[in-house]
């Protein structure tokens, strides 16, 4: 057997190992102190016309702010700032309103920052005051490219319910 020595010029491999270790430690720390919550209804609906039409299989080809919801590591593919918005009148009954607003900005802190807000709530119809309910989901994302084939992504999610 012949072994080739890997040229580690500049310590790139050590840098990747350190960043991956830090990412895992932060992830374990955050998940250890998180409060278990049930998924919001919008977690089942999804966001964006393209991802929904693809049957929510948007993980591998994610582009745009919708990637915050599906795969935050995919944010590293973006080269310019983007804003995306979506509105849906669910079930065409004028009872449930569904909104998505997402913003991503590449080039901050050597990576890409993303922020999105998803809202699901009843309409402001006075005759439906007894059905007043809303759910909000705010996602803050960060993605970092370690190599051309390996990206890291992190989401921090805040979930609010008003009944």
Task: Produce a short descriptive summary.
This protein is of the alpha+beta class. Helices cover 21% and strands 37% of the residues.
Explain how this protein is built.
With 163 residues, this protein is an alpha+beta fold. Helix content is 21%, strand content 37%. The chain has four helices and five strands, in the order ααααβββββ. A five-stranded antiparallel sheet has the order 1-2-3-4-5, covered by helices on one side.
Q: Specify the biggest β-sheet.
A: 5 strands, antiparallel
Give the low-confidence spans. none
Strand order of the largest sheet: 1-2-3-4-5
Find the structural class using helix and strand composition: alpha+beta
Task: Kindly state the percentage of residues in helix.
Answer: 10-25%
Task: Give the percentage of residues in beta strands.
Answer: 35-45%
Keywords:
163 residues, alpha+beta, 5-stranded antiparallel beta sheet, elongated
Describe the protein's topology.
Blueprint: H1 12-32, H2 42-45, H3 49-53, H4 67-70, E1 82-90, E2 96-108, E3 111-122, E4 134-147, E5 150-162
Antiparallel strand pairs: 1-2, 2-3, 3-4, 4-5
């Amino acid at each position: 057997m012949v072994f080739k020595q890997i040229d580690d010029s500049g310590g790139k491999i050590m840098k990747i190992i350190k960043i991956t270790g830090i990412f895992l430690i932060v992830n374990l720390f955050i998940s250890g102190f998180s409060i278990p919550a049930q998924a919001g209804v919008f977690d089942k609906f999804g966001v964006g016309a393209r991802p929904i039409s693809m049957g929510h299989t948007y993980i591998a080809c994610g582009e745009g702010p919708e990637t915050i919801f599906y795969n935050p590591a995919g944010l590293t593919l973006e080269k310019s700032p983007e804003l995306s918005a979506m509105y849906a009148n669910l079930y065409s009954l004028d009872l449930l309103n569904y909104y998505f607003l997402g913003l991503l900005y590449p080039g901050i802190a050597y990576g890409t920052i993303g922020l999105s807000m998803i809202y699901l709530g009843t309409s402001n119809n006075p005759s439906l005051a007894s059905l007043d309910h809303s759910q909000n989901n705010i996602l803050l994302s960060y993605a970092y490219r370690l190599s051309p084939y390996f990206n890291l992504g992190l989401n921090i999610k805040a979930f609010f319910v008003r009944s």
